[in-house]
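Hey,
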Amino acid sequence: MTDTFDFVIVGAGSGGCAVAARLSEDAQTSVALLDAGGRNDSWRITTPFGLALPYSAANWAFDTVPQKGLNGRVGYQPRGKGLGGSSAINAMVYIRGNKWDYDHWASLGNTGWSYADVLPYFKRSENNADFDGEYHGKDGPLHVNKLRSDNPIHDVFLQAAREAQFRTREDFNAEDHEGLGSYQVTQHNGERWSAARAYVQPHIGTRANLRVETEAQATKILFEGRRAVGIEYLQGKQKRQLRARGEVILASGAFQSPQLLMLSGIGDAAALDNHGIGVVHHLPGVGRNLQDHPDFVFIYASDYPHFAHSSLGRLPSLLRAIQRYRRERRGLISTNFAECGGFLKTRPDLDLPDIQLHFVIAMLDDHGRKRHKEAGFSCHVCLLRPKSRGSVWLKNADPTAAPLIDPNFLGEEADVEAMVAGYKTTRRLMETPSMRALQKKDMITSDVKTDDDIRNILRARVDTVYHPVGTCKMGTDALAVVDQKLRVHGLDALRVVDASIMPTLIGGNTNAPTIMIGEKAADMIRAEMRAS
């Protein structure tokens, strides 16, 4: 079966959903959006507390290759599968990053990507229930608001921040974001508001020019000469094609966009030849420049009654919480778990915060895969702008095989020392009277005393906080994959619109920036259509 559309978009994550919805606003423009996963419209996805429940259908659940900087450990890389992509399984924290991040992109030669350039797209996407003014939008499809969990831990966290002499902050997405406070989330009426719910699901069946294909795994980009003309994909056991009159747009994320390029003959020629893949275009930067936030988690058992129990042992209170959520869409079941946090400097002479905290109302051990009998809490600390660079490569030429993912965590010694400073800064918060009062037992750090102890526990426990970017980076240098319009260098009618295009990792969560990339891409594409 072959059908033809103006645009064929591969991947219905944050970037793909945004660009698909905006391009299909024009009834004369036909758009096909395909994703390897399902519709992601079950209660497990829409109910925020569902984040705590295993749900493999919406998660690629990748592993890394053994990490030299982490004592050879294999790390875990959850990635969203299905409509909404990772926005369907993330912790819903709404963060844009620092103004400097985007001005830095522009300084690298990426004209049009400064903070002043991208702010209108953040605002266009946003429907913020709490903040207005210069930095916020009220009319976009992406609902953003304060949590409805009504957890008194927020007051405790703010008091601890003051005791540690850290700034406190209400809005992390304005001129400055240094300080600690409560996060806003991508929710609406106490439900998860993924990129799919914001941009695509309202239009399924109502826009005749938008076709959404699920359970459809792209296997190859089709070319005529140097022009991308379609996508080959598997749906069930059937091999099918979608053809593109205009463009093929990859939006499969930092792991799978470079994977599909390589499977299609675009990448380092020698590496492709090793897998017996014919070279369509030698582009050595494909799969390189992988960046992610290395993250360490403090974990404490606690008797505080407002923490979630990973084993659901407090069943009566859980049943009451479920009943309240059904009535009011409020309370524990609306939690994103990472309810508080913020951005801190580990040294006063730094121009920007260099670490981010996520304060979690449960004991999050090994990404929640290791369960504890007791209730408790966790505090993540991640390094915002690591120097280490990793890569994504093909395991083989099988399009259904997982890629080889190497974040190279703590590969640079400077990252180890920065994480030591981040550990100490976070420990200041954990040792305040307010935090001490919550702690029944320190689960992992009670014996950590010296800097060498810190280095050892970092190498033993650091892993991702789920923000991989950069593997199809935007730029003009030898390893750049796309230009400032997100067009793949050296090829025609092929674009990448997801977090893989980020030349450098932004200082914060990556969902909102990826949606911004989708919004901006749609505008650039429409401008080119008008000019042609």
